[in-house]
User: What shape does this take?
Amino acid sequence: MGVTLVLATSVVLQLVAAILALRLTLITHAGRAWMLISAAVFLMVIRRSVTLLRLIFEHSDPAPDLVAELVALGSSVLMVVGIAWIAPLFLSMNQHRKKVEESEERYRTVADYTYDWEYWIGTDGNYLYISPACQRITGYTVEEFQADPDLIHAITHTEDRESLARHTSQEIEHEEVLSLTYRIFTREGQLRWIEHKCQPVYGKDGCYSGRRANNRDVTDRKLVEEERDRLIAKLEAQNTELERFTYTVSHDLKSPLVSIQGFVGILQQDLERGEPERVKDDLARISNATGKMDHLLRKLLELARVGRLVNPSENVPLEALARETIELIAGQAEKYGVQIEISADLPVVFGDRLRLREVMQNLLENAIKYMGDQPQPRIEIGSRREGNETICYVRDNGIGIEPCYHEKVFGVFERLDSTREGSGLGLALVKRILDAHGGRIWVESDGSGHGSTFCFSISTKDADISSS
Ligand code: ADP
Assistant: This one.
């Protein structure tokens, strides 16, 4: 009876142990191991059950040894306690792993969804992490950067490679945040400005574990800054020009005013003396000075308007424009016996037709006016190609201009020859018209007696015209 009870208790305990082991297959990651343990315990249950059934139904002889069965009972008890004890341990490990996984998921989401291109480079120079934003900014994938730690240098603009290399070599030594702005070319060949900031990172143990970097695409900001600097420079240049202009204008307008004042005084004296002939002469001089002032003021007004008022731009064949202008000045050309030639292949320029005719007219009139005593006066209207630019020119074999005056002649009221009629505003006007068209003008001349060539470049394709 005692052995039967011991055997029955052993069977029950081993069954409990087998069921507990089976349950652990579900809650631990070592499922197969617990399955094997559970199967082994089940086999022990079967063995014990067979012995128990034989004892009950066949009264097996000899009866199982009580001591051996008590030892087996003891081991069954230990097995149940052991398995029951280990279960909570696995449960808490499970919960801990889940928490770690959730936390890892959260940090990865934060890192992977950063708008900037983030990375962490280890002490061996290899990437420990790169955020997928690198593809948005560079066109290259995380895998490509990871496979080639030098890719970042390879895509850097050649002019910035040295500073990037210098920065990289400094990184290890520096505790503080370092920054650098450099340019890269994307996979599609687009230029991008990168604002880079990096700092060292340390593990929990305080050991240096590489550098964390943030790369921000600041291309749009750079373009705005460049445009702002360009506008400031333009504004400064305009301001300087305006100051010079105001000074020259007030100075040149003063001389007819001084004449008028002087002759008003003389007129008064002549009236008092009763000399009508002299009074007439004084009035003529006053009228002449006011006429001069009127002419200057009109020209100044025209000059001030030129930069702003622009008629709609169009394609203007320069040859047709030259012929049209020659018609207008035919009288003067004939008077001085000037021969005007137009070269073939003149370009079609893009701009304000009326303004461009003013340019041509001013240059041709000057060429005739400053021909000097040239026995065979000749003017040539032509063009030449320089790189991507088409240069148009008006060349004469007149008196020429000394190199030191090549810039000066385009200034307001700048005149080199006061024996001829003129206001000193013609070339300033021409320069402003070309400025407004985004073009430029200059003069080429070997000096006195060598003739002058006035060259100008202007857009030959449809393009916007500055209305500043
Ligand atoms: P203006 O002809 O009314 O004096 P411009 O502004 O047209 O004023 O020209 C400025 C100066 O440049 C002229 O006074 C002249 O001395 C010089 N110049 C202009 N065109 C020529 C030219 N084709 N050959 C020589 N000198 C020239």
Q: What stands out?
A: Residues 366-367, 370, 396, 398-399, 401, 409, 414-417, 422-428, 452 surround adenosine-5'-diphosphate (CB under 6 Å). Residues 256 and 289 are 5 Å apart (CA to CA).
